Amino acid sequence: MNKLINLTLDGKKVQAEEGKNLIDVAKDNGIEIPTLCYYKKSKPLATCRICTVNINGRNTTGCTVKVEEGIDVKINTPELFENRKAIIEMLYAEGNHFCPSCEKSGNCDMQNLGYKMAITNTRYPHVFRNKKVDFTPHRMIMESNRCILCKRCVEEIKTKDGKSVFSFVKRGINTRVQIDYKEERKLTEDEAIRAMSICPVGAILVKGISDGKPFGERKYDFLNQNVHTSLKNKKIELEDGEKFIVATTSLAGCFGCHMSLLDIDTDLIDMLEIVEFNKSPLTDIKKFSKQCHVGLIEGGCANDENVHVLREFRRKCDILISFGECAIMGGIPAMRNFVPLQECLEEAYLNGPTSELGADIIPAHEDIPKLLDNVYPCNEVVKIDYYIPGCPPNAQHIWKVVKSILLGEEIPIAHEEFKYD
Ligand code: SF4
Ligand code: SF4
Asked: Which helix (H) or strand (E) holds 271?
């Protein structure tokens, strides 16, 4: 055992073995330094930089620090928290992270960090690049669109004769992980499953093996902690007898979020005591008859009519909320963003299994809304004030957030209620 040294972690004086890794020392003392690339058995990789801490006034990656006598480490300052949050948001915007359709959802380290940091949307526009999805390997599938280039697989997964299975290829924004097909064949199924499990996201999949588990059995379902939402608006003042006026709409979505809204069951009675619905599929009121306090938007913008409706909601609603994955990041409809529009139309109307035999018309008429080149999240078209993630968001969760916004109260959200899928 190395000699014991003294150091300070967020103001707490502790002792540790000299030279031990800072991430492990913090963990031994009940302080989590978040990271996506650090893997205890490997050498520190310092690729994700989420573990950035401040040591004696200087920012540095925590995973590369070996503790020494007298160091003063700041871990959870507001500035460092904000840096970490920004990195996670960039990773979400840069990859194609459709949690509702991802095999790793519920067991994903990145998704879990998103929950812990109460990330409801990304401040950066989604890139929607189309990276290679490689189905060729014997046992595995490499979904490069979810890979965060943490390098864990490259360092950790070797064949029995010490050969690498994964490597980085290309450079800059084109860097991706490639699987050596010959070496991959030498892995046993257990070794392949280990590769899938050390990947902090859902980039490495093993054919025929599912990581999916029902709610309640997933790795990150119950952490007994609350996620706090912070409100930017003050309480909305009403005249005597006046109710909050709410409008809702569904753009490029499936109406699942509206179905979830109806699922609040008996809370609907409480809701209707304080809320009056204006334009909404719930009331079938087609036109705004007054200015509304809150507008709830389901679905992203796939065509010019969606854009028109969304802009009208922005004008007519003081506070605008995106609810559900499709409104927040485009969701399932945005999966067409990787395929040229013409190809999508041909698949849907001419070549798809449900097309009529011999069909040769792609519908086009001046009354049919024009499709946009991509499906856009609502915040890339108008300013959005709040976000309620989920596919669909849980019914009680929607009402809790809307009520807290109407009443201007900050309400803690239980971890298990806050879901991207
Ligand atoms: S579960 Fe993880 S890897 Fe899968 S889409 Fe969500 S964040 Fe990405
Ligand atoms: S495939 Fe997974 S483990 Fe490998 S670099 Fe990408 S994110 Fe990291």
From this structure: helix 267-274
Closest ligand 2 atom, CA of 154? 4
**Residue pair 5/16 in contact by the 8 Å Cβ criterion:** yes
pLDDT tens-place string over residues 179-223: 999 999 999 999 999 999 999 999 999 999 988 888 888 888 776
Contact by Cβ (8 Å): 305, 365: no
Q: Is the CB of 102 under 6 A from ligand 1?
A: yes
Answer yes or no: is the C-beta of 97 below 6 A from any ligand 1 atom: yes
Tokens for 323? Answer: 């609810």
What is the pLDDT confidence band of residue 267, given thresholds at 50, 70 and 90?
Answer: confident
111 touches ligand 1 (CB under 6 Å): yes
Quote the CA–CA distance of 94 and 99 in Å, as a whole number.
14
pTM: 0.92
Counting ligands in written order, the one closest to the CA of 195 is 2
Using CA atoms in the order 47, 51, 54, 59, what is the torsion angle rounded to 10 degrees?
20
Mean pLDDT, residues 22-31 taken together: 96
Percent of the chain predicted with pLDDT > 70 = 97
Cβ of 153 below 6 Å from ligand 2: yes
Atom 7 (ligand 2): residue with closest C-alpha? Answer: 147
Q: Region of 172 please: left (phi>0), alpha (psi -120 to 50) or beta.
A: left
Which domains are seen in the chain, by residue range? 4-76 (3.10.20.740), 101-206 (3.30.70), 226-352+368-417 (3.40.50.700)
